[in-house]
């Protein structure tokens, strides 16, 4: 049985995956925000399947290889690990604020999931086999997530130095959705999120992980 641990002796974390994945990008930005050193390896789950499988046989992006060779997967679990080793926190300390942060992260991740579902349906299934009612339902779920995030958006986000995981995840999700399914989510319908994204992408951690 193949191991899902990398070679021991690595002295820097390795983030495996393409930055056009919102899940990979949210981890990369979080690491940069925290000042944690890492190497990002642009390995595609499609084009470089065999190479990815040699690192993690499950071939799931993002994959993080810790500095002692343990392979982790799933962006939320990777960020949980990072939170344990980071010098600072990207989550609010107050219990109530923490709960609201989790709600916003959940909505943003749902938006990522629905965007990916639409992309897969459009790109991997022949046009004559695509199920329009299902696409309509997923598109409705996607817009519902962004409508709730629009209501929660704070004009102060990305206006200072205290940038937390919810804001990072929301900005990454919005950028991804606009990159792949902007015909489903009209930017003009969500002006607060569009403005938040524009401010976010000017930050060095976002600029350095851009994928255009």
Count of distinct structural domains? 2
Principal-axis shape equals globular
Q: Give me the number of helical elements.
A: 8
Side by side, the strands of the main sheet go 2-1-3-4
CATH topology of the largest domain: Glutathione S-transferase Yfyf (Class Pi), Chain A, domain 2
Return residue spans where pLDDT drops below 50 for at least 5 consecutive residues. 1-9
The whole-angstrom Rg is 18 Å
- Average residue pLDDT: 92
CATH architecture of the largest domain: Up-down Bundle
Percent helix range: 40-55%
Distance between the termini: 38 Å
Main sheet specs: 4 strands, mixed
Secondary-structure-based class equals: alpha+beta
Number of strands: 4
CATH class wording of the largest domain: Mainly Alpha
What does this structure look like?
The chain is an alpha+beta fold and 212 residues long. It contains eight helices and four strands; from the N terminus they run βαβαββαααααα. The protein has helices spanning 22-34, 49-55, 75-85, 95-124, 132-152, 165-180, 191-200, 204-207; strands at 13-16, 38-41, 63-65, 71-73. Strands 2-1-3-4 form a four-stranded mixed beta sheet, with helices on one face. Strand 3 (63-65) and strand 4 form a beta hairpin. Helix 1 runs parallel beside helix 3 (75-85) and helix 6 crosses helix 7 (191-200). Mean pLDDT is 92; it is low at 1-9.
Summarize the structure.
By secondary structure, the protein is an alpha+beta fold.
């Amino acid at each position: 049985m193949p191991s899902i641990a990398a070679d021991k002796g690595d002295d820097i974390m390795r983030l495996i995956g393409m930055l056009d994945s919102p899940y990979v990008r949210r981890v990369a930005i979080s690491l940069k925000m925290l000042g944690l050193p890492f190497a990002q390896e642009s390995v595609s789950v499609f084009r470089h399947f065999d190479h990815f499988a040699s690192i993690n046989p499950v071939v799931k992006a993002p994959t993080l290889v810790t500095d002692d060779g343990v392979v982790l997967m799933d962006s939320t679990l990777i960020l949980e690990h990072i939170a344990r080793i980071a010098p600072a926190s990207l989550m609010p300390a107050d219990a109530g604020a923490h709960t609201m942060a989790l709600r916003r992260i959940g909505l943003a991740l749902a938006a990522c999931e629905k965007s990916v579902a639409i992309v897969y349906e459009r790109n991997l299934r022949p046009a004559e086999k695509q199920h329009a009612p299902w696409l309509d339902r997923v598109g409705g779920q996607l817009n519902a997530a962004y409508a709730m995030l629009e209501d929660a958006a704070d004009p102060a986000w990305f206006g200072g130095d205290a940038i937390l995981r919810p804001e990072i995840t929301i900005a990454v999700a919005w950028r991804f959705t606009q990159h792949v399914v902007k015909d489903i989510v009209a930017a003009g319908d969500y002006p607060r999120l569009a403005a938040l994204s524009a401010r976010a992408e000017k930050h060095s951690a976002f600029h350095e992980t851009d994928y255009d």
